[in-house]
């Protein structure tokens, strides 16, 4: 029987907000039967933002991070079969600032964690908040963000997220779109009162998702099917959700399965759900990354018709 080939390009180690070394994740990838692995530390924040955080790769640690990944590349190239190891970053889009661009990478994931309110500048927002308030933080942070910066109106936050996602895609500079509907992570009645929840079946929300899909058309950006919410017990479905994936498939947007792993034991967690969701959305293939050629990412189709 032929088994489906799977990879994970969304991996966080102890260099940012994950646990374990690159070596730990490579061993886990081999044990899980993955055909390649890529590391995607949260990119260092640009100095001009004036921001600091405890979950981004410190600028002064980039060389150590790169060297650790490249050491694993050399070690695991000697296996039979070899495990290709790729060097990447997950770059944050912050409205009002250019996304970090660092050379010498195999790939970049573009993600939106921090939504800037439409009525103030990013600098004013961060100064007032005193930190990077994110949409995927704790439920308490989610409620604070809505109450203090979006007038207590969750819909304003959702609209800003959808708009800034489109802006990020239009700006470009990355290869993979990370967790495309991360805004839903705290949209859970078990975590927040009704006033902090939004309707994911609402027509306005769907129009916003459709706008993201239109922005992706012709961009060459691959959308990840991210299982991080599943592995950490925050969602029961992938990012993006099934209906979102159906829209992506109808528009010919290609997808790749990623784990958004922060623990080595989560290297392929939720992958069965990801494959089942892709199939339910009408996809017949996902993509496997095979490096860069002439400055562009090389992707190889992997059929979804074989067993996982």
Report on this model:
- 44% of the residues are buried.
- The protein has a 7-stranded parallel beta sheet with strand order 1-2-3-4-5-6-7.
- Helices cover 33% and strands 16% of the residues.
- Helix 5 (154-171) packs parallel to helix 6.
- It contains 9 helices and 9 strands.
- The chain has a single domain (7-303), classed as Metal-dependent hydrolases (TIM Barrel, Alpha-Beta Barrel), CATH 3.20.20.
- The chain has 308 residues and is of the alpha/beta class.
- It has helices at residues 22-32, 62-77, 122-129, 139-149, 154-171, 203-216, 228-231, 242-250, 271-280, and strands at 7-8, 36-42, 85-92, 107-111, 176-177, 222-226, 255-258, 285-293, 296-303.
- The longest helix has 18 residues, at 154-171.
- The radius of gyration is 19 Å and the shape is globular.
Number of helices: 9
CATH architecture: Alpha-Beta Barrel
Number of strands: 9
Estimate percent helicity. 25-40%
CATH 4th-level superfamily? Metal-dependent hydrolases
CATH topology descriptor:
TIM Barrel
């Amino acid at each position: 029987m032929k088994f489906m080939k799977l990879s994970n390009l969304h991996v966080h180690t102890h260099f940012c907000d994950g646990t374990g070394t690159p070596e730990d994740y490579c061993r886990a990838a081999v044990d899980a039967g993955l055909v390649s692995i890529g590391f995607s530390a949260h990119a260092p924040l640009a100095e001009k933002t004036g921001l600091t955080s405890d979950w981004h790769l410190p600028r002064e640690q980039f060389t150590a991070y790169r060297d650790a990944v490249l050491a694993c590349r050399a070690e695991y190239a000697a296996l039979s079969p070899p495990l290709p190891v790729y060097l990447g970053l997950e770059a944050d889009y912050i409205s009002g600032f250019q996304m970090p661009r660092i050379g010498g990478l195999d790939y970049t994931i573009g993600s939106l964690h921090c939504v800037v309110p439409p009525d103030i500048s990013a600098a004013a927002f961060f100064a007032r908040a005193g930190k990077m308030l994110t949409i995927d933080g704790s439920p308490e942070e989610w409620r604070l963000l809505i109450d203090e910066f979006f007038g207590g109106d969750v819909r304003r936050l959702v609209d800003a997220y959808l708009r800034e996602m489109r802006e990020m895609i239009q700006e470009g500079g990355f290869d993979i779109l990370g967790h495309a509907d991360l805004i839903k992570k705290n949209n859970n009645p078990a975590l927040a009162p009704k006033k902090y929840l939004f309707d994911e079946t609402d027509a306005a929300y769907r129009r916003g998702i459709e706008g993201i899909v239109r922005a992706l058309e012709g961009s060459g950006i691959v959308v990840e099917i991210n299982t991080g919410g599943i592995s950490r017990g925050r969602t029961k479905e992938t990012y993006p959700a099934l209906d979102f994936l159906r829209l992506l498939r109808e528009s010919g947007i290609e997808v790749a399965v990623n784990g958004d792993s922060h623990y080595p034991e989560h290297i392929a967690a939720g992958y069965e759900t990801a494959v089942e969701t892709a199939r339910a959305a009408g996809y017949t293939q996902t993509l496997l990354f095979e490096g860069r050629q002439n400055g562009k990412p090389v992707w190889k189709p992997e059929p979804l018709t074989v067993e996982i």
